[in-house]
Amino acid sequence: MTLFDRIFGGSDYNFARTVAAIDDAIAAYGEGEAVSFPGTAYSLPCYYAVTGVKITTLGEMKAAMETIKGMVVHGNRLQNGFDAGIGSALCAEFLEALKYLRGAQPYTEPELGHLSDAFVRNLGVPLVTGDIPGVAVIIGGAEDPAETVALVKEYQSQGILVSLTGKCIQQLADAGYKTGENVRVVPLGMEMQSVIHVVSVALRAALIFGNITPGDFPALAKYTMQRVRAFVNAYKPLSDEIVSYGAGAICLGFPVVSNETENMFRVPKSLIQQLDTSKWNATSLEARDIKLKITNIDIPVAFATAFEGEIIRRGDMQVEVDGSRVDCFELVATKEAAEVEDHKIVVDGPEIDEIPVGSKISLSYTVEVAGKAMQPDFESVMERKFHSYLNCIEGVMHTGQRDMIRIRISKADFEAGFKFRHLGEVLYAKIKSEFEAVVDKCQVTIVVNPEKNKELRAAANEVFNKRDDRLKSMTDESVDQFYTCIMCQAFSPSHVCIVTPERLGLCGAVSWLDAKATNELDPTGPCQIVPKDRCIDEHLGRYEDVDEAVNKYSHGALEHVTLYSLFQDPMTSCGCFECICGVEPVSMGVVITCREHAGMTPLGMTFSEMASMTGGGVQTPGFMGHGKHFIASKKFIAAEGGPGRIVWLPKLLKDQMRERLDATALELYGVENFTDMIADETICTDDPEQLLNYLSEVGHPVLSMEPFDM
Ligand code: SF4
Ligand code: ZN
User: Fold this and answer.
1) Residues of the chain with CATH 3.40.1470.10
2) pLDDT (tens digit, 9 = 90+) per residue, 267-318?
3) What are phi and psi of 570, to 5 degrees?
4) Which residue, by CA, sits nearest to atom 1 of ligand 1?
5) DSSP strand E in 349-440: where?
6) Which of 43, 98, 602, 684 is the most buried (most CB within 10 A)?
7) What are the beta bridge partners of residue 584?
8) Has this prediction a pTM greater than 0.90?
9) Could you tell me the distance, in angstroms and rounded to a whole number, from the CA of residue 386 to the centre of ligand 1?
10) Residues lining ligand 1, CB < 6 A?
């Protein structure tokens, strides 16, 4: 038997059982029964991406089997093997989709099954920044469960996103290993066909970020090959079914590493036999050309971006730094070189082992930096990174900022020998490596003393207030230049964000100050200066300089972009936007929803559906991705009347933005408590008439605005 026989054996097996499963489903529910995965705008995303056809009913699914039949054709050309592999994968998608009929929830934790569009979009920023350098698709499990655990841990500690299919899920669960999206170890399902859910993520990335036309298979495969750094690690024994998926994976550019010995042949960088499974990590990274960002930090526990979302429960915590009850804060301060001793870390007060377990304590840390190119403006940029730095420590959870921080250190860390001093080690190492162009020397002082912290906090608050005053005075008019950000071009090759003081990047992670700092740290990097000398239209925010910049950095894909309009050449979206707004024609307002809100909006569309209207660096007048904080900016669709146009927001977003949005509306329209005039899902979900009634009832300012000039 050759490898080809095995591929065809697997695809034939899948084809036959998919036909039977569809027939069974039709017998039970009829051909008109709706079929789709939940939380996606792409119905059956793999089939849609590969063929361009959106399947919505069982009848259409049955008809689609004819197309798949054309792929599963025996032959001895390499292409036959690839086609059969893709066909087999599409069968797997159908089989999985059938599990979700009639709103069923076929998976229970730890298995996750289908992953939503929001999951894909959440990956955008970490993938482009290299915080997730790759995606490991682990299938099956080692004979010795400890070996599987070690492999997962190795990838996780490198920040690599891990998906699990089959036996490895049980092995990790038995070992008490934490899994889930928040720690970037994602169990798909016990059945082999569930591997399709990670393929679905890769293919949607191509549609969402890459603006690949569904059905353009060569473009799709080129995108996944070049931009999605995924690879497969498959433990022996491999069934024919898995072998057929492997052929599909290789066709999409994902190398397969296995210790299988039966009927294997090797294809350099694509099909790799590695009997020594302890080398799989190194072999896979090499095959996929994955380069890791390495920061050596001297702490007794792991440090990796995979731990950023880890949650430490009350019962698991050794101590808690609780800024909501006691005096705590975090601060970066610029000093003269002579005042800073590099790598000095001081703990002023008791260490963690002198504090009773379960205590809530007062703790502050001040990071003092010195450098010839250091500017006080960078202090807040660095400070905001602390959240991510400390969260990357395994067993440590950090929330909040400034004097409202909360840090939990786990019992497991305490037992591993973790000390307060190690918080300092992490801050030191990260600041020195990420800001090396501006920081020559850095020292950290950690104070664990309520009296001292009370005084120090008051002083820190004066610094924060001064910074806020400076930020408030910083408007688009008051600065001499804007910045580009093209970080997302790794996935959206023609997308450019223009970042201004009053309009942050749509991912929410890049403010004007961040862009400025990025530019100084890396003058040839993703943030380039855009002068603003040649204004064409102040109202729309149209500048010759901006047009030139977007044209240049989109490589000619874009000619005109305005800063303040939703209709006239709106800014493009990559795919990782925090929010999306869309025009609501009945009220002549705009509806905004965000990734965290899975529910319906008055446009009759969910976040995923609205998001699928734009993205991939194209302009879609009437729809625009943007950052959360842009909502409260005076420049938010200023050309169309400003934030007073907002008629609907998810409640969660209202609560987050209330204070700032109210202040902006008061200033712009003289309206008090504007946020309360905006509808949310508790007032109406999908009925524009109901929305309009509410707006009339509360006297929403949109009612006195001109209709849109669409
Ligand atoms: Fe991507 Fe724009 Fe954010 Fe830059 S500012 S990371 S280009 S979304
Ligand atoms: Zn992006």
Assistant:
1) 477-704
2) 777 899 999 999 999 999 999 989 887 777 889 999 988 898 898 999 999 9
3) -65, 160
4) 488
5) 359-361, 364-370, 396-399, 406-410
6) 602
7) 589
8) no
9) 20
10) 125, 485-488, 497, 499, 505-507, 509-510, 574, 576
For the chain, give the mean pLDDT: 93
Q: Are residues 68 and 85 in contact, defined by beta-carbon separation less than 8 angstroms?
A: no
CA of 123 to the centre of ligand 2 (A): 9
Using CA positions, which residue lies closest to atom 3 of ligand 1?
A: 507
Report which residue type is found at 464.
Answer: F
> Per residue, what are the HEC states of 205-222?
HHHHCCCCCCCCHHHHHH
Q: CATH 3.40.50.2030: which residues of the chain?
A: 3-287
CATH architecture classification, 3-287: 3-Layer(aba) Sandwich (3.40)
Nearest to 227 by CA among 82, 128, 117, 120: 128
Looking at domain 311-377+396-466, its CATH class is alpha beta
Looking at the chain, the domain(s) classified CATH 3.30.1650.10 span: 311-377+396-466
The yes/no answer on whether domain 477-704 falls in CATH 3.40.1470.10 is: yes
Q: Which atom of ligand 1 is nearest to the CA of 499?
A: 5
Q: Report the C-alpha gap between 637 and 701 in whole angstroms.
A: 15
How many whole angstroms from 2 Cα to the centroid of ligand 2? Answer: 44
**Residue 381: band (very low, low, confident or very high) from pLDDT cuts 50, 70, 90:** confident
